[in-house]
TrEMBL record:
Alphabetical list of SUPFAM superfamilies matching this protein: DAK1/DegV-like
PROSITE patterns to which the protein is assigned, alphabetical: DEGV
UniProt KW Secreted keyword: no
Organism in which the protein naturally occurs: Candidatus Dehalogenimonas loeffleri
Record protein name field: DegV family protein
InterPro entries: DegV, DegV_C, DegV_domain_contain
Pfam families in alphabetical order: DegV
High-level lineage: Bacteria, Bacillati, Chloroflexota, Dehalococcoidia, Dehalococcoidales
Keywords, sorted A to Z: Lipid-binding
Amino acid sequence: MTVRIVTDSTSDLTPALAGQFGIAVVPLTVSFGKESFTDRVDISTDEFYHRLATQDTFPTTTQPSPAAFLNAYKKLSKETDEILVVTISRKLSGTFDSANAAIQLLEKPDCRVAVVNSGVTAAALGILTIWAAKQAAAGMGLAELKQAVELKSAETKPVMAFDTLKYLAKGGRVGRAQGLVGSLLSIKPVLTMRDGEVAPLTRVRSMAAGIDVLYNFVAEHQNIDEMAVEYATTPEVAETLINKLGALYPIENIYRTTVSPVLGAYMGPNVISVSVLGTGRQ
């Protein structure tokens, strides 16, 4: 049987993309005060950012429970006896631990489940998961696939141009970029991820300059397996970037997605990013 792939909603896989590659998505939860919403199920990205702009309450997020993963495992165990779970970086969320805890609750010993800590999040997690699904469809078994995904995670990186780090700082996920929090308002931080946490890459004076950094990041790659562009509130900027990236990589192979509400709680509006799974130039 084909290995089935599970990820969490911080992968920013749209329902269409998840369906296209047969990936099961376990959602996190975002809350405004006492109101809680299942990520991408009860609240959309547009609805989330409308609330963010019109409410004084700062949003909080919650990882999926082991029971949520267990439900996914039970459903998939009717179709396969091998499941690979690829989660958000363990340094950013307890989702990895919930996914592992659920294995102990699965009352079907002939179904094997393995969990990979991707070390990333957002569309970087999404494209790593898509890559895993493609390898599974090609016949790769669970043990080999887990090892391959762990190796590929080192080649998977996001670069994110932020309009502000206010939300990332308030949410406690600013990581190694802490030194940029007090930057002048005219400075736009560009971040990446290193060793499973957010890290600074550079600073620019405009989002347009940030887009140039994203383009140059892609241009540094010699081999690209997967690529995605995502945005929060500026689809037109994303399309401009995608069209520009067409000089480096086939536009039809660039996945388009939006920041999930859960990640929006940390990224804030106007963020734009590109994620690449590939190797740099020698």
